[in-house]
Amino acid sequence: MAETIQRKFLNDSPVARWTALVLIALMMFFGYMFVDVMSPLKSLIESARGWDSGTFGTYAASEYFLNVFVFFLIFAGIILDKMGIRFTGLLSASLMVIGASIKFVGISEWFQGTGLCAWLDSWWVSFPGSAKMASLGFMIFGCGCEMAGTTVSKAIAKWFKGKEMALAMGLEMAIARLGVFAVMWLAPMISNHFDKSVVAPVAFCTVLLIIGLLCYTVFVYMDRKFDRQLIAAGELKEEKSADEEFHVSDLKYIFGSKMFWLVALLCVLYYSAIFPFQRYAPNFLEVTLGIDAESAARLFSCFPILAMVLTPFLGALLDFRGKGATMLMVGAVIMIACHLSFAFLLPAFPSKWLALLLVVTLGVSFSLVPAALWPSVPKIIDAKILGSAYCLIFWIQNVGLCLVPLLIGKVLDATGGYTVPMIIFSSFGVLAFIFSFYLKIEDRRKNYGLEKPNII
User: Fold this and answer.
1) Checking phi first, is residue 9 left (phi over 0); if not, alpha (psi -120 to 50) or beta?
2) Predicted confidence (pLDDT) per residue in 406-448, tens digit
3) Domain-wise residue ranges, the chain
4) How far apart are CA 432 and CA 336, in angstroms?
5) CATH class of 12-446
């Protein structure tokens, strides 16, 4: 009888809630693989399709174009809060598959000889038709991927409320980052196996996205059962009251929150120093160390390893000990040191072991941030507008992720080297440290609980 009471809801079962986490994390794992599948192939795509660094930077930025300039992520937040995690998750996974398929067609050999490609080549001639088509697909994929990220965050907040939320978010990010590690190894291997093909790795990752859609479909059935249990227990209503229902006017509570803006600015600064760097890192190591593209990709694949190991432990530390704002400050300091070392130390002492040390250490910074940042949002934002808050944070983040690759591509073409881009990345870390320090002061003044443990 006691056991029955203890496991009143599906998420009270450790097996059920961690299975749910694995299912949704796999969708993000495959999504992260697709995001970076072209990164270790930069030199190859440039020679095979006539791209340059500026073209590659524009292509990389296209992932965020619709999210930023058409405000898709803001609409995604409204969809998430109105329609829930099941509908929104399936929609986002489907958009990823559709966008990936278009990108696959755009870089395929078959497409290069079509009339559509010839027409695309006829305007904005400095940007090849293959890049235009690939960018269109990447835009649609980016809508789905960013929507999926916010949906997964809200799903974890629901399934792990009062439980190991930071640990769960940390593990989800660790599994997702494993995708970066995997694709840095697999993309060159698959490409070499198919005679230096840029198409085969993209096709492989597109198939994995379909599997991710199937994984989320299984989670949908689990979540539907969980909701039925909550409704039967009176903890969730089938029809929400006017006060409980999300209204667009509720967004004013997000925009009026100083803490929200601090977290959002921290997010865009941290991730603008990481994700755009990932796009160029294999080529940076290839040029700086004088090694081939495959060796550079394998070297950079170590980036997420320490992050994968540390993030769950840091999440557990937050759950039981707290100190979230302090972790953000430490992460900023590590980021500054690593990017400055990439700018000046590694070119002066071009060693694979030094490069490996810096890459892995940067991964530590990347593990501190999500473990501390994302679990802090439910502490400062009401649950009924949590999805919109996450999407608005992702939208602000996407502004940086869209513009920074463009900036880095232009700077590379103008300077011909990576020193200035690395200084730019380190400057983001300096600003992040300032904002994280201010966040800690505000938390101490108003007692939001960012430094407190999640499990009391």
Assistant:
1) beta
2) 888 889 888 888 999 999 999 999 999 999 899 888 888 888 7
3) 12-446
4) 10
5) mainly alpha
